[in-house]
């Protein structure tokens, strides 16, 4: 085939691999890349587009993950039959509709994005090849319904050393992310259970509870985390919290409030805490705060994923159930099949066992620390601006006191092709903050993009 040629915005905020993936995907959808077409090698396409092979690898792997192309060992990447992609609408958008689409922002400070360009694909690829060469026969069967024992052993060891979580592999259940595991907890705890959710908080939690017709009560959050008196006065039975780095406020649940929360849960057999250990891998100052589960393993259901520490598209998460709930789970979910492929589980097991996961985390902490330093340095002396939530995680919160409201701040940023996010978008209750709060993610942008984007943002907000 002819060499692929695409228009890539090199000084924009969208990663180059994402732009390349989307444009190849569109070529397949619109039929310009036919079934069986071999894509250029990573080396040749990289030379032609002046991109690194890592960037090409990221784009190709995303296409493979979504089923647009397949990787054939020692032969390359080939386009799959488009008819097989039944979930994709085959009618191209009319030209008039395409022209009316919103242009991509040059700088997108999304709080949930990661630095995908730093993923160690060479090591991941090595483990994938070894798994295929050595274990291809054993991967044919479904495996254990709670996930492969070898991976659960690695996760249990990691949790003990990194978060102080003491659990057996038997207590761990693997699934394709929190969104898939939370409904299992919901069914397990029964229809009459009332849930508490942090406010402001993670949208998906509220939507999952709503879709399963469960009551969800918003409980306010302040600079020290969950407001415990509001919880005590509520009818909540199960409280969903992100204590390590509250999303999106960035606050860390204080030790005193952790004890109060655990005491609240211990006061009734109906009460549990769902601990979503969001962003716990990335802490930049002081000693890591212990998980709630490490303080009370009987009333805490522990949830986490590899979305931030590895990559969102991997779709591997896990939960640790207290033993009484585990017995009920095994009785009530005998039909459950683990939703994560055994191939991915086995690769991740090797990745962790051989020390690659720990090395990757250490490297990413340094990379994200440098990016955070860029943010702090760029905004430290800006008048009418206060930065919070910078001790952990991949986003910070800006309090802007220049007289502009939240919507005006968002509009001015957008007019400069900068995407930032208002704290009120994540809230159900009225915010008690004195000034507008803006959520600013820094992980997916390069240090140069951060410097330039923040300089332009300060100008757009007339802070200098």
From TrEMBL:
Gene3D superfamilies, alphabetized: Type I PLP-dependent aspartate aminotransferase-like (Major domain), Winged helix-like DNA-binding domain superfamily/Winged helix DNA-binding domain
HTH gntR-type domain mapped to chain residues: 14-82
Key words of the record: Aminotransferase, DNA-binding, Pyridoxal phosphate, Transcription, Transcription regulation, Transferase
Presence of the UniProt keyword Ribosomal protein in the record: no
Pfam family membership, one: GntR
Origin superkingdom: Bacteria
PROSITE patterns: HTH_GNTR
CDD domains: AAT_like, WHTH_GntR
Cofactor(s) required, per the database record: pyridoxal 5'-phosphate
Family matches, as SMART domains: HTH_GNTR
Gene Ontology terms for molecular function: DNA binding; DNA-binding transcription factor activity; transaminase activity
SUPFAM superfamilies: PLP-dependent transferases, Winged helix' DNA-binding domain
Keyword Transcription: yes
Family: In the C-terminal section; belongs to the class-I pyridoxal-phosphate-dependent aminotransferase family.
The protein's name: Putative transcriptional regulator, GntR family
């Amino acid at each position: 085939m002819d060499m692929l040629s695409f228009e890539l915005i090199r000084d924009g905020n969208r990663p180059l691999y994402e732009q390349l993936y989307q444009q190849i995907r569109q070529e397949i959808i619109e039929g310009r890349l036919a079934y069986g077409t071999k894509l250029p090698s990573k080396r040749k396409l990289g030379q032609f587009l002046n991109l690194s092979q890592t960037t090409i690898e990221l784009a190709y792997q995303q296409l493979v993950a979504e089923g647009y192309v397949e990787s054939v060992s020692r032969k390359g990447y080939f386009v799959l039959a488009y008819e097989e992609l039944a979930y994709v609408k085959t009618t191209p958008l009319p030209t008039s509709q395409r022209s009316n689409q919103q242009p991509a922002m040059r700088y997108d400070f999304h709080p949930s994005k990661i630095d995908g360009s730093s993923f160690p694909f060479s090591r991941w690829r090595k483990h994938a090849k070894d798994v295929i060469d050595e274990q291809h026969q054993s991967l044919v069967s479904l495996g254990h319904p709670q996930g492969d024992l070898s991976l659960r052993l690695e996760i249990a060891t990691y949790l003990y050393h990194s978060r102080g979580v003491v659990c057996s592999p038997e207590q761990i259940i693997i699934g394709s992310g929190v969104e898939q595991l939370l409904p299992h907890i919901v069914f397990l705890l029964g229809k009459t259970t009332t849930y508490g959710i942090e406010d402001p908080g993670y949208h998906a939690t509220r939507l999952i509870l709503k879709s399963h017709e469960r009551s969800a009560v918003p409980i306010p959050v302040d600079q020290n985390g969950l407001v415990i008196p509001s919880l005590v006065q509520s009818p909540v039975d199960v409280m969903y919290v992100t204590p390590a780095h509250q999303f999106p406020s960035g606050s860390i649940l204080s030790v005193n409030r952790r004890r109060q929360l655990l005491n609240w849960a211990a006061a009734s057999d109906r009460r549990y805490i769902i601990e979503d250990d969001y962003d716990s891998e990335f802490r930049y100052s002081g000693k890591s705060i212990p998980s709630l589960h490490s303080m009370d393993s009987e009333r805490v259901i522990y949830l986490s994923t590899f979305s931030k520490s590895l990559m969102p598209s991997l779709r591997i998460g896990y939960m640790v159930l207290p033993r009484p709930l585990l017995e009920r789970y095994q009785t009530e979910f005998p039909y459950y099949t683990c939703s994560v492929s055994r191939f991915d589980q086995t690769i991740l097991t090797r990745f962790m066992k051989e020390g690659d996961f720990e090395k990757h985390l250490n490297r990413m902490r340094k990379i994200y620390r440098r990016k955070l330093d860029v943010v702090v340095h760029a905004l430290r002396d800006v008048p009418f601006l206060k930065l919070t939530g910078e001790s952990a995680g991949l986003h910070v919160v800006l309090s802007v006191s220049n007289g502009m409201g939240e919507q005006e701040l968002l509009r001015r940023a957008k007019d400069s092709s900068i995407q930032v996010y208002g704290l009120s978008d994540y809230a159900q209750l009225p915010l008690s903050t004195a000034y507008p709060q803006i959520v600013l993610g820094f992980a997916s942008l390069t240090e140069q993009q951060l410097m330039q984007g923040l300089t332009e943002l300060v100008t757009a907000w007339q802070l200098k």
